[in-house]
């Protein structure tokens, strides 16, 4: 079975809810808003408006923490360029940059690596969990994992264990499992946490009036022990991804590049 990687674009959904009623009497003052509350809302609106009016334009840093060029070869893996889907191009801002490659070792092990880099609008980076669920995957586990890099540093990434049902060649239903590993890269900073990334972004906006060009890096592979006779079990698949990430990160993440490459 060939690798069918999830796209890093969030799916959109709407949630509708119905109100509940009870037998309690309705007060005649239900629609009356206290004067002090109206004044507080008005004051807050004025403060936000003045802050927007007098603050200088947000300085979006032109530099990023990544080089948007994934290598063709990584160890025993040869790659081909991955397609950027029409959905991604239509939903994400026009200045979003992409780098994507599908890696194959020729023995049946396949890995998808993707980088999405935000532009001036800062709207390209999102929470991956919503994206995966929207594409039919069920998240059955998640944890932060340390990944040793050749520099001696440890990269902390978020690993999602995902599953979904597929129909096999003999019309049997098969549970396909995969590992989706991701992290965010700013200028000289990385984090596996979407919440932390938002906090760092807000701090930079409030204190320094600047914005990082955040990159969202993801690496995905299927667990293949139930798909082929020589497939990898979950432990082997995680070891495969850990080794692959350790090799590929110094080729595009500037903070981990050897000094001679940076220069």
Sum up the structure in keywords.
263 residues; two-stranded parallel ribbon; single chain; 6 helices; 9-stranded antiparallel β-sheet
Outline of the structure:
This protein is α+β, with helices and mostly antiparallel strands and 263 residues long. The chain is 27% helix and 32% strand. The relative contact order is 0.19.
Walk me through this protein's architecture:
Helices cover 27% and strands 32% of the residues. The protein has 263 residues and is an alpha+beta fold. The strands form 2 sheets. Strands 2, 3, 4, 5, 6, 7, 8, 9 and 11 form a 9-stranded antiparallel sheet that branches. The protein has a two-stranded parallel ribbon with strand order 1-10.
């Amino acid at each position: 079975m060939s690798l069918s990687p999830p796209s890093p674009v969030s799916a959109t959904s709407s949630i509708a809810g119905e109100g509940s009623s009870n037998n309690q009497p309705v007060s005649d003052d239900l629609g009356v808003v206290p004067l002090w509350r109206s004044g507080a809302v008005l004051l807050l609106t004025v403060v936000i408006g003045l802050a927007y009016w007098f603050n200088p334009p947000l300085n979006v840093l032109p530099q990023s923490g990544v080089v948007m060029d994934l290598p063709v070869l990584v160890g025993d893996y040869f790659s081909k360029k991955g397609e950027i889907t029409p959905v991604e191009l239509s939903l994400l801002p026009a200045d979003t940059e992409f780098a994507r490659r599908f890696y194959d070792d020729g023995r049946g092990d396949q890995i998808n690596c993707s980088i999405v880099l935000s532009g001036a609008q800062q709207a390209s980076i999102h929470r991956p969990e919503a994206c995966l669920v929207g594409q039919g995957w069920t998240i059955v586990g998640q944890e932060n994992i340390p990944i040793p890099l050749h520099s001696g540093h440890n990269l902390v990434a978020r690993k999602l264990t995902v599953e979904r049902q597929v129909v096999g060649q003999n019309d049997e239903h098969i549970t396909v499992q995969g590992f989706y590993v991701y992290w965010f890269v700013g200028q000289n900073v990385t984090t596996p946490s979407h919440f932390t990334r938002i906090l760092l972004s807000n701090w930079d906006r409030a204190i320094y009036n600047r914005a990082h060009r955040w990159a969202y890096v993801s690496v995905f592979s299927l667990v293949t022990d139930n798909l082929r006779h020589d497939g990898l079990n979950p432990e082997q698949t995680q070891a495969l991804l850990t080794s692959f990430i350790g090799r590929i990160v110094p080729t595009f993440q500037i903070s981990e590049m050897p000094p001679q490459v940076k220069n």
